[in-house]
Predict the structure of Bifunctional protein FolD.
Amino acid sequence: MPVNIIDGRQLSDLLIEEMAQEVKVRMAQGHQQPGLAVVLVGEDPASTIYVRNKIRCAEKAGLFSVVTRLDETCTQQELEDVVNELNERDDIHGILVQLPLPEHLSEERIINLIKPSKDVDGFHPVNVGLLSSGQATLIPCTPLGCLEILKREMGDLSGKHAVVVGRSNIVGKPMANLLLQANCTVSIVHSKTIDAAALCRQADILVAAVGVAELVDDNWVKPGAVVIDVGINATEIDGKRKLVGDVNFENVAGKCRAITPVPGGVGPMTIACLIKNTLVAAKQN
Ligand code: NDP
């Protein structure tokens, strides 16, 4: 059977279009326009592009959006003042502080300061706790996007063996939690795992969120598995800058049933899920 290369851009466009319709209908019914605030500290080129894409998609979905830019050298207090002000605004339902922050700023303090009801990244400890206890909450966008892809590709995930490579708070752990809630049998692989490849070869679903370019090769993959590549790694090939994932796409595509490409796979779905979370937050308000 030929491999299905999952088009995350197309799926994301579809979801954003559906949400735009929903926003239109809700506003016609007299509901407030959902509002998303994004805070960007400094001018890191990758973060600047991510923020631009998020705002573009928010606007496509009919959301009201604001971007607050702070200088690279801003103080913790200045950043906290911005978050506090956004926490109090009635027209803002979702707040996202683009990470990573410059080293002199505490990400933990900022994550903990955002009101859990406006935490559209799903990183606040209250939302993390709700997710791990299986209660409705705002779920981190990247794993939520991966789950959406998997459900559309495979339908019911019950009984599947899912292996998640990576155990970060923003991708690996919430991904494992979501797969567990979808009734998968879940294994988590990390840097101390012995023979990661052997464990991964048992996976019906393999999610790679490592940050190591092309770590997952075809000898890590069971024939017919569905492979989700979260990684975004900038490399240089023949003097040209290129983005590659955590999976060796060429080799693995020859072995699996379906795979997400990098770019154009998980990335766009992450943004669609940010819009989804903002809508959820606005509805709960
Ligand atoms: P982190 O660096 O926070 O976590 C990486 C994880 O991979 C850690 O748990 C680490 O293990 C594990 N790991 C590292 N090396 C190995 C190895 N050789 N074998 C097995 N496990 C290993 O990364 P993130 O989770 O934040 O991001 C992962 C990737 O996803 C990055 O490329 C990032 O750019 C990308 N990303 C993409 C997004 C998107 O929208 N597409 C969004 C967020 C991230 P240990 O805990 O033991 O150190």
